Structures are given as structure tokens and as C-alpha cells.
Amino acid sequence: MSSNTVETPGGTVRGRRSVFGYRYRAIPYAAPPTGPARFAPPQPHPGWRGVRDGTRPGPTAPQPTRDFGRLDMTPYFGPGWIRGDDYLTLDIHTPAADNRKRPVMVFVHGGGFVSGSSRAALYNGSAFARDGVVLVTVDYRLGIPGFLDLPGAPANRGLLDVLAALRWLRDTIGAFGGDPRNLTIFGQSAGATIVGALLATPEAAGLFRRAIVQSGSGTGAFTPEQAQRVTAAAAAALGVEPTAEAFGEIPDERFVALLPTLTGLDLRTNTAKDPLAGLSPFSLVLPRQPADALVCDVDLLIGTNAEEGNLYLAPAGHLETSTSDDVAALAASVHPDPEAALAELRASPPGALRSAILGDALFGAGTARLTQAHARLSRGHTHVYSFRYRSTALNGRLGAAHTVELPFVFDNASEPWLHGETGLLGPDPAPAALATQMHSAWVEFAFFGTPGWAAYKPERPVIQTFGP
């Protein structure tokens, strides 16, 4: 028999009945990262007395407000910084908190390593619970506490948070009706890049059975030299030594205020381009790219959207105003052979060229490299998709941009807050059949390890297309 109260390692938590099961919100998986502890590995939560109220959303990681001009990205980013120390938490949406062993899907949100949360409306797990899956969304440290590389602190603390959440779920998700041996971790954008890095993290082995990488990159990590440039710039702007001890004394408000001044740093070196094309000053910091260091033999579902770069150009009108000089400057900053890149795309107008180069630099090339590496080296199956449905937002200019696949994966594409002239999907109705098709593929993958089409092999590169 299911209940709205569940025992966890920290204490009892009370959830709320939903249309499709039960929802438990803001359950701590690690101790609050406050003061100097913001730059330490995640620690076990001390627990609580009585019954914790899991019916309301909790605080979020410190983060800046993100503005995408004429496009309303609130459903993607959520409410921004909701203050409170206890934000290393997760939400669980389950058909029932009973003894059944259901597939578990754990979602890692995107936001450029500086923003986002499980409170975003897009990540409601109702459709997954309806279809027999336990859906978990995870909050992790962002920005300077999460990803600034500092002497005296472990690197990639946001990734360490996700690892801590996976360990917590291994020990606890059974009480929520989930099977810890059948766990799929999936993420989008920065979250997908974290998932890709977990495939190359020995400590993650055995914590998940399958992985989904939506518009991420297997080559999106900074080199140590690139990370040091960001650290030096942050320390100089704050007027402190670049150490964990010095940064531990600075309040989060100053970190958040500093972030805009770090965006756009020149991170090109003699050996590496900026994998984020200047759009974020933070990424994972690794000696080798995840695509070159895979260690987890799990099934992988991976893909990108056809016009990823449009998100960064269309809302500000740059698709129309881009020039050949803009295209050439971007190609030189992100591509090892800019002339070759431009030669392949010369027939397109400047705005489309700029979008294509940006999308490939941020997501396409790194996804292709991770796909090839997994198909060659892993014992798990590799399944590849391409999302091509064009949103009609911004007078049809947004197209198959970055993030547009998410409403179809979560099967909430008909929600009114995604529509209208400024909505992510635009004024036109979203195709219900496409949402059913894509969401069902994700569910089938979680249940059985196959999304409904043949595995990708280098000699037989099968790619499933969603949309026209």
C-alpha cells in the first residue's frame, strides 16, 4: 500500500497526492553548502526531527537572472534564486511509494552551469509517473561554488553533488517505489554534459544502468589552463587570493553579481578552443575530454536539435542582422579549421551560418565524438536521435533550437505557458503525436534499454528523426 509519508536516511518526509501518484519535493540528499563548505565535497545531511514537509518546493542554488529578450525562458530556468541554505535537494514523482520496483529516471537540468533548478515548470514528472516511471530531478551547486577551479577545493563540485544524489538514490529510492538497479540518468545542455562526464567517472560505475545525453557535449570540458584563467579573473575582481579559503569568506551575493563580468573571457589557448564559445565562464574541468575517457559500460541515448544555435541568436534579432564578418569571427574562435567549416556552409545566409557553427561548436561536434566513442568502446548499446521540429516562436525564427525538445520529452508540449508569441513553442499548437512518440521512446529506453529503433554502429549509423 502506498503512503504520502516515506522514511529516508535523514528522517520522514511527507509528500502530496497528484493526478498520477505522489510527489515529494525538496528532499535533502546532502548537507547545506554554506560558508567554506560551499567549496568542500558534499557531506551527508544531518537529518531532521519530526515529519519534513515535502509538499512545497525548496530553495534553489544561488544564480543570476537570465534574459533571452523576446523569448520567455521562465519555464526552462525556473524562478531563479530562491534563497535558503538547504538547496542540495531532489524532487521525486512516483506512481506510488510502495514495494514495486519501477524504472527510475534522474534528470539533471541545464542552464550553462550557472542557472536552473528542479523548480522549472518544464521538468514536471507527471507524464513519467503516469507511464510507470519514478522521475527524480536534482539540484546541484552552480557558478562559482559549483564549478570554479580553486586550489584547496575539489574540482567539479556540481558534478560531485550529482554523484552524491545518485548514491542517496541507490540507498533510498526503493522506499519510493523505484528500482535502484534500473536507473537511467538523463540531462540536457549543461546537465547533459555532466551526464557525459559521469560516463567517464570511475566513481559513477554501478550507480546507473542507462544514460541519455540531450544536446550536451562529450568535449565540453575546460582544460586546467582555461579554468585557471577564469579563476584568476574572479579573484582579481573580488580582490582576494585565488584559494578556497579566501573564497569561503565571500557571500553568495557577490559571486552572483560577479558572473556577468566573467562571461565572454577569452579562453582560447595554444591547445584548445573555448568549448562554450564565450557563453559561460564555467564548465567541468578535466584533464581529458569525457569522449576520450569512457569507463561506464551502459546503454546510451544521445542526440541534438537541428538548429541549436538559434536560441542564442533569434531572441535578440541576430539571425537577421548577422554579417559575414560575424560568421568569420565566430568560426575563428571556435573551430580548429575555420575555412573548412565555412566552406561546408557557404550556401546559407549569414544568420543561418552563424547558428550552424555555434550549434556545432557547443553541441554537435562533441555529441558526435561521444557517440562514436561509445559505439566503438562500450558494451552498452548506442541509440542516436535528431530533433527537427521547428518551433513557431519569434515569427517562426526560433525553429528547432536548443531546449525545444524538452516539452516533447516531458510530454507537456500542450501547456499554455509554452505558447503564444513569446512562448518557447510559439503560437501554433504543438503536434501531440510527436510528444507521444518522443516521450514514449524515453520511457521505453528506461524500461528496456531500447527506445524503439536500431542501435547506432559506425558501420551502420542509424539516426532516428523526430519531426519533419
Structural description of this entry:
- It is a single chain.
- The strands form 2 sheets. This protein has a 10-stranded mixed β-sheet with strand order 3-4-6-8-7-9-10-11-12-13, sandwiched between helices. It has a 3-stranded mixed β-sheet with strand order 1-2-5, with no helix packed on it.
- It is an alpha/beta fold and 468 residues long.
- Strand 9 (178-188), helix 5 (190-198) and strand 10 form a beta-alpha-beta unit.
- The protein has a single domain (5-224, 283-466), classed as Alpha/Beta hydrolase fold, catalytic domain (Rossmann fold, 3-Layer(aba) Sandwich), CATH 3.40.50.1820.
- 30% of the residues lie in helices and 16% in strands.
- Helix 10 (324-334) crosses helix 11 (338-345).
- The longest helix is centred in the C-terminal third of the chain and has 28 residues, at 350-377.
- The model has no long low-confidence stretch (mean pLDDT 96).
- It is built from 14 helices and 13 strands.
- This is Carboxylic ester hydrolase.
- It is an enzyme of class 3 (hydrolase).
- GO terms for molecular function: hydrolase activity.
- Keywords: Hydrolase.
- Pfam families: COesterase.
- CATH fold-level assignment: Rossmann fold
What is the H/E order? EEEEEHEEHEHHEHEHHHEHHHHEHHE
Q: Helicity level, as a percent range?
A: 25-40%
- The averaged pLDDT comes out at 96
> Uncertain segments of ≥5 residues (pLDDT<50)?
none
User: Number of domains in the coordinates?
Assistant: 1
The best one-word shape is globular
The count of helical stretches stands at: 14
CATH architecture descriptor: 3-Layer(aba) Sandwich
